[in-house]
Amino acid sequence: MPSATSQAAAKTRKSTSRMSLARRDDLNYPILGRLVEVADERIVVAFDVDGSRKRQAAQTTVAVSPTDVGRDVVLVFVERDARRPIILGMTQPPACVTTVRAELDDDKLVLTAAREIVLKCGEASIILTRAGKVLIRGSYVVTHAAGVNRIKGGSVQIN
Q1: Which structural domains are found in the chain, ordered by start?
Q2: Average pLDDT of the chain?
Q3: pTM to 2 decimals?
Q4: Three-class SS state of 28
Q5: N or C, which terminus of the chain has less Cβ within 10 Å?
């Protein structure tokens, strides 16, 4: 038969486990949860710990808005306490994955994108499209050449 001391220790472990909502070992690493509420400066996440779903108010390191409700979030816990989740970030759906690449060396900068590249400053812009179009827009466009300023095309329209 267990002693009164060991029974009291077991009872304390059970109540501590219930208070923290999860075993501390389960919360050593980031886990995936879901953003379930963003309203009136209140952020609530849901996550699975010990086989049950928990809902808990959370802090965040990233901006969240009501339109983000339902998105998966990466959570860590202050002192491994399930009552104190912090949102580190949101997972991105495959459509948000971009294929933009920048290469830089001493002589050149190469920007590569899947659909288009836009350089914009105020009312002026240069757009490069996947179809091979180059669109230059501005309220005043000037070209200067020390040598020949050549315009070539299947058809050239001026004015």
Answers
A1: 4-92 (2.40.50.140)
A2: 82
A3: 0.48
A4: coil
A5: C
